Amino acid sequence: QLQLQESGPGLVKPSETLSLTCTVSGGSISSSSYYWGWIRQPPGKGLEWIGNMYYSGSTYYNPSLKSRVTISVDTSKNQFSLKLSSVTAADTAVYYCARHPAKGGSDYFDYWGQGTLVTVSS
Amino acid sequence: QSALTQPRSVSGSPGQSVTISCTGTSSDVGGYNYVSWYQQHPGKAPKLMIYDVSRRPSGVPDRFSGSTSGNTASLTISGLQAEDEADYYCCSYAGSYTWVFGGGTKLTVL
């Protein structure tokens, strides 16, 4: 059974960089069949897609966050990571990692991590 | 890229049917057959309920169905049950390898 687990600091200071890692178990992040993505949810609000990446390193970002976001992969550890720079209180959210098919003509996020709350505060 | 528009809340009694709408544009919902729906219970991760507009993943009851008309997608839940009470989010492919979610709808089972 595929599992995704987010990890990283729960508190980040304003103007600093938020860094999170998603560890994938029960499957290979190097599969050509999937993208791997980050989605966030501010407290009491809706979901926002942050970006997707392919195991080869190709990345795709939400235009509204593109200037501050970097998603990268470490295939040796079966992990992918999110960095969001120059954070403000508006970046306070539960951050989820998720899997997305890259082939087969279908579109969805099927496996999700449990989510991790990141608070931006001094 | 603006969030898809969903009603803030809907409600229904057990056994009834409810429909949640998700309105976008011709650049997302209306442009692709790639709308998915997610159920989220409090404190939990979203769960995929419908994908590719109307397809159900294995294990999702056939009480859940999806459709589109123009720039609006809809999720219909028939035979409402207490455990269906949750937040529901739509998501659409928006072109150029980008995706957009709806603002979410709170379903209350009366």
Put simply, the count of helices of chain B is 0
Helix content of chain A: under 10%
The global form of chain B is: globular
Mean pLDDT of chain A: 95
What is the C-alpha radius of gyration of chain B, as a whole number of Å?
13 Å
Biggest contact: A-B, 22 and 26 residues
Structural class of chain B: mainly beta
What is the straight-line distance between the termini of chain B? Answer: 35 Å
Q: What's the story with the biggest beta sheet of chain A?
A: 6 strands, mixed
First-last Cα distance of chain A = 39 Å
- Biggest sheet strand order of chain A reads 2-10-9-4-5-6
Rounded to an integer in angstroms, the radius of gyration calculated over CA atoms of chain A is 14 Å
Helical fraction of chain B equals: under 10%
Q: Sheet with the most strands of chain B?
A: 6 strands, mixed
Oligomer designation: heterodimer
Low-confidence stretches of chain A: none
| Overall form of chain A | globular
Task: Tell me about this structure.
The complex is a heterodimer of chains A (122) and B (110). Chain A contains no helices and 10 strands. Chain A has strands at residues 3-7, 11-12, 18-25, 34-41, 48-54, 59-61, 69-74, 79-84, 93-101, 116-120. In chain A, a hairpin with a 6-residue loop joins β4 and β5 (48-54). In chain A, the strands form 2 sheets. Chain A has a 6-stranded mixed beta sheet with strand order 2-10-9-4-5-6, with no helix packed on it. Chain A has a 4-stranded antiparallel beta sheet with strand order 1-3-8-7, with no helix packed on it. Chain A is globular, with a radius of gyration of 14 Å. By secondary structure, chain A is mainly β. By secondary structure, chain B is mostly beta strands. In chain B, the strands form 2 sheets. In chain B, strands 1, 3, 4, 7, 8 and 9 form a 6-stranded mixed beta sheet that branches. A 3-stranded antiparallel beta sheet of chain B has the order 2-6-5, with no helix packed on it. In chain B, a hairpin with a 5-residue loop joins β7 (86-93) and β8 (99-101). Chain B starts with 8 loop residues before the first strand and ends with a strand. The A-B interface holds A 39, 45-49, 52, 60-64, 96, 106-110, 112-115 and B 1, 3, 32, 34, 36, 38, 45-48, 51-52, 55, 57, 89, 91, 93, 96-104.
